[in-house]
Design a protein that fits this description.
- By secondary structure, the protein is α/β, with parallel strands linked by helices.
- The chain has three domains: 7-29 and 213-241 and 255-471, TIM Barrel; 45-208, Immunoglobulin-like (Sandwich); 547-616, no CATH class.
- The protein contains eleven helices and 35 strands.
- The strands form twelve sheets. Strands 3-1-2-5-14-9 form a six-stranded mixed β-sheet, with helices on one face. A five-stranded mixed β-sheet has the order 4-16-15-6-13.
- β29 (425-429), α8 and β30 (464-467) form a beta-alpha-beta unit.
- α8 packs parallel to α9 and α9 runs antiparallel to α10 (571-580).
């Protein structure tokens, strides 16, 4: 989605569809809170040998830890992880001092494995979990409290107040050439009057995840927000920082809508030519797009089509090239010349499968004729360009739509199977909707939700996921004069859609915001006139998306191996492996019944990993 307050239309439709269950999809922040999962205390292990005045404990990364949570009763010898090669995995190491802890630092040692194998400490990053005060809970799942989300690097000493948890996010990347087996190392903690060494144990599975995903991803990215917050003026600085953001996208297996914001395709329309035509210059685009696809392994590009018009359910723009409307012969000649060149160029480059045309967002029934005509106009001249629409399948639009992308509650599997039989594909999306009881993208929801979303995606044969924005740090309506500090105010506020200046209307905590500017650029100009040439800051939700995508790749690998090795498998073996491709009810039973405990996910992933190893063995 581009910017998305579909509430008027979707709320009405979803309330009708789901009202029997007694659920309102846009639950008010004033509704009674129910967040038992946030305050759970049945997970985690104390690290043996920590000091008397600083408790140290650990847990899986798929937990959001309240600041005031008690130290777990259970003890354990080490923080434990398991990952494939070319895989990321994290744990949280939590400090809870009984006195103020000054100048905390943390560093990881090398991880030493079988036969003198080493995963160097450069592959172990230590981030600190940043807490945001949620003043206005998104819905009935959230509560007014400090919620963890941003993950800035622990690159300078940190003071930790007494009586509060401070988690450290210990993120391990397993190189593609790391031998399988068990590795051990330490996380060394140091502060005034305190030191500790937390044992780390990593099991590396004997296979590697592919470089390029087998699920498509499409996330909005605002280069202008990045330039504004970082204070970037020169092209060199812009390119340097953009690459830092795209590296972050790539490491998380997510593709931005537009990975070449400084190198567009240049088009010159020539209405005076005989016949009227378009001149298209791909030179700058080709050079940069080739680089980012090769270097960052992106899976898609949202191709803008000039002159096509567009819009949303709220407002639309009519198709026009200069003074010529779509009915004129001049428009038709120039438009056909233009889009034919696009299709032929992308075909020659082998990029047609990366391109999608997403020109209208969330049409209402009143828009269907307009949208259909636009798609048919494009397909008449460039049938090979993939078209995508953020809408569930409707007969009035069937035919020229290649990819349907409904909001998750609107996905109907039986209807989708009929469209798949016609060769059409499905993505789906989340945004300010849905809210509880669905899987959502909000800060004040369980960490499992975005990871479970990818298991639901696999379960329903969905080909791609979409989110309207990843860098929505401020709202021009809510913050018309000074831009929002996304660390201090976690709410995603409505903008556009005729929202009056100075009015704060809630979309949800963290909506449109998965990565943060570095702390030095939390507001534009915070660090003075010099540009901030630092990488973006990840979030727990961004990490959970990556974990879910990696889970998807585990399942994809297992399915491919079953197909490849099928002839050598007994009926019992085949049945056992195929059952692992099913998503168990312990992870997700249906769209609104799913785990908020990571254990079922981690157990299933481990079972899938063992099956992959078995199938790869001679």
């Amino acid at each position: 989605m581009k910017q998305h307050n579909r509430a008027a239309r979707l709320a009405a439709g979803l309330m009708v569809a789901l009202g029997a269950a007694g659920w309102a999809p846009w639950a008010s922040a004033s509704e009674p809170a129910r967040a038992p999962d946030f305050y759970r205390t049945d997970y985690g292990e104390c690290i043996q040998g920590a000091s008397a005045d600083v408790a140290v404990w650990w847990c899986d990364a798929v937990h959001k830890i309240p600041r005031g949570r008690d130290v777990p009763d259970k003890a354990g010898p080490a923080a434990r992880l398991a990952a494939a090669r070319n895989d990321h995995e994290a744990v949280q190491v939590v400090l809870r001092p009984s006195r103020p802890l000054k100048q905390l630092t943390a560093s990881a040692t090398d991880l030493k494995g079988p036969e003198e194998a080493v995963i160097e400490s450069d592959h172990v990053r230590v981030l600190r979990v940043y807490y945001h005060f949620v003043e206005n809970p998104t819905d009935k799942t959230g509560v007014r409290d400090w919620w963890p989300d941003a993950l800035p690097p622990l690159d300078q000493p940190l003071d930790v107040p007494a009586g509060q948890n401070q988690p450290l996010w210990v993120l391990v990347y397993v190189p593609r050439d790391a031998p399988a087996g068990d590795y051990r190392g330490q996380l060394k903690l140091q502060a005034e009057g305190f030191s500790a060494a937390v044992p780390l144990e990593l099991h590396v599975w004997d296979f590697a995840l592919p470089e390029r995903n087998h699920i498509e991803t499409a996330f909005g990215f605002s280069a202008s927000n990045v330039f504004r917050y970082h204070g970037l003026k020169t092209e060199a600085d812009k390119r340097k920082v953009l690459d830092m953001y795209f590296q972050c996208f790539s490491e998380h297996r997510i593709s931005p809508y537009n990975p070449v914001p400084l190198d567009p395709i240049h088009v010159r329309f020539l209405p005076e030519a005989d016949p009227p035509r378009a001149e298209v210059d791909f030179s700058a685009f080709d050079a940069e797009f080739s680089r980012v696809v090769e270097e960052f392994h992106f899976t898609g590009y949202r191709l803008p089509i000039q002159g096509m018009g567009g819009g949303t359910f709220h407002a639309r723009r009519e198709p026009r090239i200069g003074q010529f409307t779509a009915e004129t012969p001049e428009y038709q000649a120039m438009f056909s010349s233009y889009v034919k060149q696009l299709e032929e160029h992308f075909r020659q480059k082998g990029w047609l499968d990366l391109i999608y045309v997403y020109w209208f967002d969330e049409p209402a029934p009143k828009d269907y004729e307009f949208v259909r005509k636009g798609f048919e106009r494009l397909k008449k001249y460039a049938p090979g360009l993939r078209t995508m629409l953020t809408e569930e399948p409707v007969d009035a639009l069937a035919g020229p739509v290649d990819i349907w992308c409904p909001i998750t509650p609107r996905y109907d599997h039986r209807a989708a199977e009929k469209r798949r039989a016609e060769g059409e594909r499905f993505w789906w999306y989340v945004c300010t909707a849905p809210k509880a009881p669905y899987c959502t993208l909000f800060i004040d929801h369980p960490a499992t939700e975005l990871r479970v979303w990818l298991w639901q995606t696999w379960q329903r044969k969905i080909d791609g996921i979409l989110v309207w924005q990843a860098t929505y740090w401020t709202s021009s309506a809510a913050y018309p004069d000074e831009p929002q500090n996304p660390y201090e105010d976690p709410m995603g506020y409505r903008s556009g859609y005729s929202t009056p200046r100075g009015v704060k209307r809630f979309w949800g905590n963290g909506d449109g915001r998965f990565i943060y500017p570095p702390l030095a650029a939390a507001v534009p100009g915070a660090s003075g006139p010099e540009p901030v040439l630092k990488p973006p800051v990840s979030s727990i939700r961004w990490e959970m998306l990556r974990e879910g995508i990696e889970d998807f790749e585990y399942l994809w690998l297992l399915r491919e191996l079953i197909h490849e090795k099928r002839s050598r498998l007994s009926a019992g073996q085949l049945n056992r492996y195929q059952r692992l491709l099913e998503v168990p009810e312990s992870i997700t039973k249906d769209m609104t019944t799913f785990t908020t405990d990571p254990e079922p996910i981690l157990a299933r992933r481990a079972a899938v990993a063992r099956a992959i190893e078995e199938l790869l063995s001679p």
